[in-house]
Amino acid sequence: MNKNIKIFVNYFLGPVLFVWLSWSIYNQIRHQSNLSLSWQHISESFHSPLLWNFVFVMLLMGLNWSIEAWKWKLAVNKIQSISFGRAFKAILSGVSFSVSTPNRVGEYVGRVMYMQEGNRLRAISLSIICSMSQLIVTLVMGITGLIYMMPEIYAAEFVSGFWVKVLLYGITAVLLFLTVFYFRLSWLVKWIDRIPGISRYAYLINAIENINATMLLQLLSLSVIRFFVFGIQYYLLFRLFGVEIGWWQGFWATSITFLLLAIIPTIALLEVVQRSTVALKIFGLLTTNELGIGLTTITVWFINLIIPALAGSLLILGIKIFKNRNEDT
Fold first, then answer.
1. How confident is the model at residue 190 (pLDDT cuts 50, 70, 90)?
2. Domains of the chain: total
3. 129 inside domain
4. How many CB atoms lie within 10 A of CB 1?
5. 221 assigned to some structural domain
6. Residue 324, Cβ neighbours under 10 Å: how many?
């Protein structure tokens, strides 16, 4: 990207959009009809047994990234055997890089730092497969959530029925394509082998050709478990912040939220307000407690991304210090 464009996006457009979205969310919450009652309920929650919900959400954050670390360990085992502890460090380092890059593409850089020198580039394709398994689950759950909440969407006139169907059919088509591609990875390798000038780089993705259907199903199963962990986190924090939404409705609304966040281009600086904006629209179909929705969304974002990113940055700093000492000696 041209340097001037980077400066414009990072130092002008990003901050302007951040302020505008933050102000719109603030106004939406400020004009909530029962705002004082919501504040009172939230204050009381911090002096009740519901405070344990926050503790459980923190524990689930550890489970969430442990599952992702296990996925990474299973995937890279095709080219290099690594311990679970090393895989977990790689995941946290990936999160640290991802929060400062568009659509978290920097995640791959952090993960491959813990691979051997000759395997780092080859590991990138395996990381993409792990991400693809999670995306497929997100699309399946999101489509199901759209179908389940169709009456509420139509009743609230949130969007016209025509565009809901366009979104539903469009995402379904993408899902079918990704699913076929996911279970036929060997096609990609053969296709690249036939392209002049690119075939010499085919070795970078040869690792995915050896992934069998059993492994792919294992990655999908772990991705499903991760998705339910996210759903439970939202439900526990909804209870803590006084958002009266049942588990089933809340889960499918969360599924739609994740679906929209997956297809909306994300700027790292705007992610928290983008999440809040989408969540207020979707969960607002089920409750009027916009303050609780906003606090839940920000808390989930902070616990699942910012805390692991800080831990990952410390790990990366440790790697650099250790490397510099070795070079000095």
1. low
2. 1
3. yes
4. 6
5. yes
6. 10
For residue 200, pLDDT over 80 is answered with no
Best CA proximity match to 251, nearest among 224, 273, 277, 272: 224
| Helical axes 84-98 vs 52-76, angle rounded to 10° | 110
Statement: residue 33 has pLDDT above 70: no
**CB 303, CB 52: distance < 8 Å:** no
pLDDT band at 217 (very low <50, low <70, confident <90, very high): very high
Asked if residue 111 lies in contact with residue 93, where contact means CB atoms within 8 angstroms, the answer is yes
Tokens, residue 155 = 């009743």
What tokens appear for 78 in the block? 């095709």
- From CA 80, how far away is CA 78, in angstroms rounded? 6
Q: What is the pLDDT of residues 231-249, one digit of tens each?
A: 999 999 998 888 889 999 9
Whether 324 is covered by a domain: the verdict is no
Q: What does pTM read for this prediction? A: 0.80
Would 229 be classed as within a structural domain?
yes
Q: Which domain holds residue 76?
A: 3-29+52-318
